[in-house]
Amino acid sequence: MTSFSRRRFIQTTSAAAFSSTALAREAPASNAKLPVCVFNKPLQHLNYEEQAHLVAKMGFVGIEGTVRANGHVTPEKVKTDLPDQIEALRKNGVDMTLMTTDVNHAGSEVHRRVLETAASLGVTQFRMGSIKFTYNRPIQDQLDEIKVTFEKLVSFCQPLGIKPLYQNHAGAGRFGAALWDIYEVIKGYDPIDVGIAFDIRHAVVEGGQSWPTEFHLLRPWFGFVYCKDFEWEDGSKKPSNVPLTTGQVDYPAFFKTLKKSDYTGPISLHMEYINHKDPQLLDKSIAAIKADKKALDTLIGG
Fold it and tell me: How many CB atoms lie within 10 A of CB 140?
């Protein structure tokens, strides 16, 4: 009961701080219920101050910040670099609304340090790393092992006041691609303790027209919603990322469903159709993020 009460306190005070700073900035009134942050992977060529200033100028409430191998903050330097990044964000009136990590368990000292440091700085949610199935063992046995992984991770995170989220991601062998397997693992948890980063792009890749079923199945555990789009490559069975609202995702239908569900949590914009590893494409990436943000604002306000 002590950890639960502490968690309630942390989330309540963090939410109050979030609304009084990030949401108070200039932004369309229609965005007030659905704060939008941006996945910072394409912006990692900027330093912390440059990135924070740009994100605020573009009208986002914050970033989904990478704290992982090859991230903007690396796990080995989290104690020194994460405070600097969050300080730069808050100085510009924005925040780290979600931390994206490789963390799936607290057995590693480095992983514990990442979670403890982030929690101490007021980060309340983080995205876990990807989990994959193997095909040489029964899937149910592996699901049972994943349940244990979640139990241990949640037990470690509860006293810290930081909640793990798992992203549904399309692809062969990925736990969570079908979404039903995520439900089997988290169905016994209070959504305050564990959740899902619901990625509509990946849900449509895997489920096609059935995405509303998975949406409603997991809606109570939504901690974040991810927005991006894709098209099927010509002559290929592979999905290829494209600008928001130009691909296969029926975004008007999705936002109609989202609004009817009374979701008022954050949205993370993912721009992944320009090579983020090439610093010479940074200006192009920034222009693409601005265009996607404009399309997303229209959807939110529509």
Answer: 9
